[in-house]
Specification:
Family: Belongs to the class I-like SAM-binding methyltransferase superfamily. TrmB family.
Shape: globular
CATH superfamily: Vaccinia Virus protein VP39
Number of strands: 7
CATH architecture: 3-Layer(aba) Sandwich
Protein name: tRNA (guanine-N(7)-)-methyltransferase
Oligomer: single chain
EC number: 2.1.1.33
Distance between the termini: 23 Å
CATH class: Alpha Beta
Largest sheet: 7 strands, mixed
Order of helices and strands: HHEHEHEHEHEHEHE
Keywords: Methyltransferase, S-adenosyl-L-methionine, Transferase, tRNA processing
Pfam families: Methyltransf_4
Helix content: 25-40%
């Protein structure tokens, strides 16, 4: 399987928000991504139960695979024990897609940001069961990880799959894909690096296409500057399969940094 070349829901992602700023991951009760006190965030706070397997994985595998947040650049070569292209995923939910992608692209290293402990535990459990060496996790706000730990121009790719669409019009400003956040992401991409977003909410897909298309440092890889075909590395989730059988749409957008 290959990453996109320069030519051509069940929300579980991330997003910024507060009542006065963009944002949004899954949920509708509290900010998940953009702004608390006018600061962009990438998540919304929500509760979740921990299973015994997730609790065990956190205790046994967390010290190895969950990275501490620190206000200094991350040395990915030291963390992974090799030099390889690094892909950041913002809001990996329960981690199933992340695990499959990492296994299908063993020559890439993956850093996943997810603030919700059940999801972190679930991905750790998959890492242990399937012996996946090329994933590390931040249980922390992705915006702060970007700002303090990811050097600019260092990422081969960024994945944002099914971020909270914030369906109500008055909440649209909480969506993650907004011009200021996209500009921040682009600065952290290496030249030629890609940004891959996916959503199952048509109005959000339209907004994503407009915002990404307006960024002067991004180029749409899809023919006609539209939506991309689903890259082979992104697996279909059970929710997505159900939606497709019911005639629901899913839109992928793959842009590259100039």
């Amino acid at each position: 399987m290959s990453l996109p070349t320069s030519t051509p829901s069940d929300p579980h992602g991330a997003g910024p928000q507060d009542d006065a700023a963009p944002g949004g991951a899954e949920g509708d009760n509290s900010p998940e991504g953009v702004a608390h006190r006018a600061r962009i965030r990438s998540f919304v706070v929500r509760a979740g139960r921990m299973g015994t397997g997730q609790i065990k994985a956190l205790a046994e595998l967390g010290p190895r695979y969950v990275l501490p947040f620190e206000q200094r650049p991350l040395d990915t070569a030291q963390v992974f024990g090799r030099q390889a292209p690094v892909v950041l995923e913002i809001g990996f939910g329960m981690g199933g897609a992340t695990a499959q992608i990492a296994q299908s692209l063993p020559d890439h290293d993956f850093i996943g940001c997810e603030v919700h402990e059940p999801g972190v535990g679930a991905l750790l459990k998959l890492i242990g069961e399937q012996d996946i060496p090329n994933i590390r996790i931040f249980q922390h706000d992705a915006v702060e990880v970007l700002e303090h730990m990811i050097p600019e121009g260092s990422l081969a790719g960024v994945h944002i799959f099914f971020p909270d669409p914030w369906h109500k019009k008055r909440h649209n400003k909480r969506r993650l894909i907004q011009p200021p956040f996209v500009a921040k992401l682009v600065r952290h991409l290496a030249p030629g690096g890609y940004l891959h977003c996916a959503t199952d909410w048509a109005p959000y897909a339209e907004q994503m296409l407009e915002v990404l298309g307006a960024d002067p440092d991004l180029v749409n890889t899809a023919p006609g500057n539209g939506y991309a075909e689903k890259p082979t590395y992104r697996p279909l989730t059970k929710f997505e399969n159900r939606g497709l059988k019911l005639g629901h749409g899913v839109w992928d957008l793959v842009f590259r940094r100039k």
